Task: inverse folding
């Protein structure tokens, strides 16, 4: 006991010293937030924007009451609302609308404040539209000059873009009107080497340029205006409808803080990434140090204390080993005789079993002993069976029964022989176009049936799709699904699902409906055709953020070509706004069947 207290005390000291060292070098999130509130009252909207932007990346989740590091509490903590307010004042209504949507979904800021700011943003957007529609007298008499368009992105995003020496915004940029001809494009970002590329833009076409940025270990200096260089490669222009423009692009105005650029209509740059990485590194060092000391003390104590005699097996210990002993003794669960193990997951083991009444072969899913103490898990597990009993469709793995035997819950399911779609993609991707469309159609059939029953899957992914030897597709694991008209167990503010396939609205489970399954199906179709998902990162939060804000890659930049008509389906399925997706799986089925009936025309090129 004394040694344990010493270990805890030492670990606490190490963590405290490291956190104090970090705090000395970087301000905590709540100081940025409070400073942003002060700047708001002073009308310093640009500086306030930067403070709230830093806060949103360090502590992104709004809370009704959130505890700070100095022991105080902040009520109605919502950096997204304040970002929306700053962007509105800075004349960026479209970006403000995105932030306000996040604030509204969080349900932290009072609705009257949300509605008042929404009206201001709508008025600003309408005013912009009227200004664009009303030409000046000179514009009415002067023909619009010939123009092309330029779209620029960088890796990472957030770089300042100069076109022929004039700052025009930050990446991702455009498409923005430019005059036809050769232009010198320069991308600059703090901590990265500036990159220059020469781009030729033709009238009525869009030139797309993606600039990779290399980290610069040396301290950054004030950038010099770019100068033309004749040896840079030329980006290829892709045909696009001509866009009339009466005035050349205007430079983006700088904000009053001299070291930061104004937020443009592109997504604001994430600046505190190094702070989060440093804090994570310090915490990791503290944890490793504490674990090392604990292991050393434990080994020392073991050398000093003789090992106790092996305990005599009791009934309790035998029951804890039940998942293995059940098979060895031919035990029964309910009316089912266990015959062998089909698979073992993190929370349950699936056995091959037979129903005693008629000899029906089933797959019996039984939770592990350690999960049974969580009543919420047990309730959700049994509820999976109740949902599955409603779904009788050839594209859905059948659940025959759900019940409990001596306090142990179980699900009796259809036995499915084959392999998962994830294995198929891993071994054969990119899949042939026709096969990918047929698999998508079959999954859509299963979703259409389930949605008609009021059931939303909520965790659709290739691991939950089985390919049978005869080519049949079956969707399984509606375990975290919920009835559309039932609050259920998934309406609390916790993320449920798999981030790689999660629709943007999955961050708020209360807003999820059947269209979240269609978004996941779009990501699966993308993965089948390209061999990988469009959004990956080193943390689940970053992946979810990319689903919310980052667009799909352009069709021209895909690793494997996709016909335009198929790409249009993927884009519509993966719209950030659920209202912009297909209204139902049935609507998607109509379009997929039409393409498959005339597949030769799809292979021939851009049709329909």
Result:
């Amino acid at each position: 006991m004394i040694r344990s207290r010493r270990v805890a005390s030492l670990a606490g000291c190490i963590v405290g010293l490291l956190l104090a060292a970090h705090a000395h070098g970087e301000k905590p999130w709540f100081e940025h937030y409070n400073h942003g509130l002060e700047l708001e009252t002073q009308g310093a909207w640009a500086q306030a924007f930067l403070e709230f932007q830093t806060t949103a990346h360090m502590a992104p989740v709004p809370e009704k009451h959130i505890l700070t590091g100095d022991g105080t509490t902040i009520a109605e903590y919502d950096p997204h609302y304040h970002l929306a307010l700053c962007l509105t004042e800075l004349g960026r209504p479209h970006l403000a609308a995105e932030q306000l949507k996040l604030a509204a979904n969080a349900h932290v800021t009072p609705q009257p404040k949300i509605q008042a700011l929404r009206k201001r943003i709508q008025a600003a957007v309408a005013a912009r539209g009227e200004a664009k529609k009303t030409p000046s007298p000179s514009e009415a008499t002067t023909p619009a000059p010939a123009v092309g368009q330029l779209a620029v992105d960088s890796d990472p995003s957030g770089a300042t873009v100069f076109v022929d020496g004039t700052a025009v915004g930050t990446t991702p940029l455009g498409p923005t009107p430019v005059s036809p001809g050769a232009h010198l494009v320069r991308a600059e970002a703090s901590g990265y080497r500036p990159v220059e590329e020469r781009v030729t833009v033709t009238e009525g076409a869009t030139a797309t340029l993606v600039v990779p940025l290399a980290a610069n270990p040396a301290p950054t200096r004030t950038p010099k205006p770019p100068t033309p260089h004749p040896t840079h490669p030329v980006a290829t222009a892709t045909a696009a409808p001509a866009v009339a423009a009466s005035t050349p692009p205007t430079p983006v105005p700088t904000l009053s803080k001299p070291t930061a650029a104004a937020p443009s209509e592109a997504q604001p740059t994430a600046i505190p990434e190094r702070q989060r990485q440093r804090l994570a590194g310090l915490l990791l060092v503290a944890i490793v140090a504490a674990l090392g000391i604990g292991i050393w003390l434990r080994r020392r104590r073991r050398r000093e204390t003789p090992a106790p005699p092996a305990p005599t097996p009791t009934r309790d210990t035998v029951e804890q080993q039940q998942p293995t002993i059940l098979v060895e003794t031919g035990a029964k669960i309910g009316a089912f005789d266990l015959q062998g193990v089909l698979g073992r997951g993190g929370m349950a083991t699936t056995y091959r079993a037979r129903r005693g009444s008629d000899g029906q072969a089933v797959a019996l899913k039984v939770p592990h002993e350690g999960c049974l103490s969580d009543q919420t898990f047990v309730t959700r597990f049994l509820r999976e069976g109740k949902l599955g009993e409603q779904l009788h469709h050839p594209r859905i793995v059948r659940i025959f029964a759900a019940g409990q035997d001596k306090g142990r819950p179980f699900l009796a399911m259809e036995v499915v022989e084959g392999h998962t779609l994830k294995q198929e993609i891993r071994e054969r991707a990119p899949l042939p176009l026709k096969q990918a469309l047929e698999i998508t159609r079959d999954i859509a059939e299963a979703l259409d049936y389930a949605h008609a029953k009021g059931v939303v899957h909520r965790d659709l992914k290739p691991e939950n799709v089985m390919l049978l030897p005869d080519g049949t597709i079956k969707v399984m694991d509606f375990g975290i699904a919920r009835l559309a008209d039932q609050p259920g167990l998934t309406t609390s503010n916790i993320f449920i699902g798999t981030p790689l396939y999660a629709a943007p609205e999955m961050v708020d489970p209360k807003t999820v409906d059947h269209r979240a399954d269609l978004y996941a199906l779009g990501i699966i179709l993308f993965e089948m055709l390209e061999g990988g998902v469009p959004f990956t990162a080193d943390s689940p939060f970053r992946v979810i953020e990319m689903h919310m804000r980052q667009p799909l890659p352009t069709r021209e930049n895909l690793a494997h070509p996709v016909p335009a008509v198929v790409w249009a389906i993927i884009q519509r399925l993966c719209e950030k706004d659920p209202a912009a997706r297909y209204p139902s799986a049935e609507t998607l089925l109509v379009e997929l069947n039409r393409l498959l009936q005339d597949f030769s025309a799809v292979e021939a090129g851009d049709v329909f």
Remarks:
- The mean pLDDT is 75.
- The first helix runs from residue 2 to 25.
- Residues 420-604 form a domain with the Transferase(Phosphotransferase); domain 1 fold (CATH 1.10.510.10).
